[in-house]
Amino acid sequence: MPTVDRDRARAAFEAYVGPYDIANPRIALKVAHTYRVAAIAERIAAAEGWTAEDIDLAWLCGLLHDIGRFEQLRLWDTFRDAGSASHAALGEAVLAGSDPAGVPANAPVLADPAPAHHPACPFPGSGALRSFTDASADDALILASVAQHSAFRVEGGLDGRTVAFCDLVRDADKVDILRVNCENTPMTILGATDAEFLASRFSRAALQAFAERRCIARDERREPADQLLGMVCFVFELVYPESLRIVREQGHLDRLLRCPFGVCEPFAHADARAAWARVGREVEAWMDGRLRSS
Fold it and tell me: Which of 60, 106, 163, 208 is most buried by a 10 A CB count?
């Protein structure tokens, strides 16, 4: 199996995102997030003792995981899948050179040269998988890692090697999302003002998911506080021990617990304050236990 040409892959990614508005902070956020996820994926794979070829492949899967976000923002002006389309499915379509579903008729036009998703011979800015790497037996694995990275659960029926890469990319994405949430405001992340965020409460369904130590499903997140709790619950779903070590090392979970989205004022309602204090105590104890046993 050939080693991934990282210079070629980086050049293809930069050519693809170039026509998007890099001055848009949301585009810049996703470019930076992409490179961090690729680096985290590489570190996790190395910690697991994977081969040099698979470490390179893990890095590439991390680089490609959010490629659908750029079209999502252009077409719908949102990063919310519920209000547009699955960004993972969009990414898979871009890489496969197929038409994404549900594209609005009045989509804004990109600056020249616009990425062409269906060139007869893929060029670096096309977004097609072949612009990043040569054909290999791992093409389906790469596409699966992109398609599955934001799913509530990895779909059944995948082979063990593919699941291992899907789990790794999902871990790397969650680890860096904790960073992103620490460095941005409630308005950027949740579409809510600081006051709206602090006035929100934790729903019973979201607190039950936390008690079960699992991620919170989309229909269980009803208020901005639930969205925050859902991000904390990411740690319960991390598969690889190195992922937990990175979370503790970077300190972003601690920052999210102390000053979520940079807001250090307490929640407005006593029940929300009590619930949040309990969440902090329990998730820290859970993290300590997992790290001791890993």
Answer: 60
Q: Tens digits of per-residue pLDDT, 183-234?
A: 888 988 888 999 999 999 999 999 999 999 999 998 899 999 999 999 999 9
Residue 7 token pair: 């210079």
Are 48 and 56 within 8 A, CB to CB?
Answer: no
Question: Phi and psi at residue 149, in whole multiples of 5°?
Answer: -70, -25
- Stretch (H or E) spanning 129: helix 129-132
Q: How far apart are CA 94 and CA 41, in angstroms?
A: 21
**Structural contact between residues 117 and 127, judged by C-beta atoms closer than 8 angstroms:** yes
Give the integer Cα–Cα distance in Å for 15 and 128.
11
Can you say whether the dihedral through the CA atoms of 265, 196, 179, 174 is positive or negative?
A: positive
Q: Which long-range contacts (CB under 8 A, 24 or more apart) does 23-29 make?
A: 24/73, 25/188, 26/73, 26/79, 26/188, 27/70, 27/73, 29/180, 29/184
The counts of H helices and E strands in the chain are 15, 0
Residue 203's contacts (CB-CB under 8 Å, 6 or more residues apart) are 220, 221, 222, 223, 225, 226
pLDDT tens across 96-149, in order?
Answer: 988 766 667 666 766 555 555 545 456 778 899 999 999 999 999 999 999 999
Give dist(CA 273, CA 6) in Å, integer: 47
Q: Kindly report the CA angle at 277 between 276 and 283, in degrees rounded to 5?
A: 85
For residue 144 the two structure tokens come to 């699966």
Q: Which amino acid is at 138?
A: D
Phi, psi of 191 (to 5 degrees): 70, 25
